[in-house]
Amino acid sequence: MISLGSTEIKVMETPGHTKGGVCYIADQVIFTGDTLFFCSCGRTDFPGGSFSEIKNSLQRLAALNGDYRVYPGHDRATTLAFERQNNPYMS
Known about the structure:
The protein is an alpha+beta fold. It has helices at residues 51-62, 80-86; strands at residues 2-4, 7-13, 22-26, 29-33, 36-37, 40-41, 69-72, 78-79.
């Protein structure tokens, strides 16, 4: 957990794209970096990448309670509810 003034930012380990991948969760927002994209996920064919690890990370994100605005490292913003319904890597 990181405190920034009155905002608490949870750091969630999400390996798969890279071994040290993380997402940052604050209020109803998730900054997913290269873990989760609009209807996709990060590449796993780089050194240290793992498809099974990213699938596990995506399942952990899908299991979060509620909906969140998702800001990935590339492409456009989305919501966790939309990704749960439409992202083939989250099922």
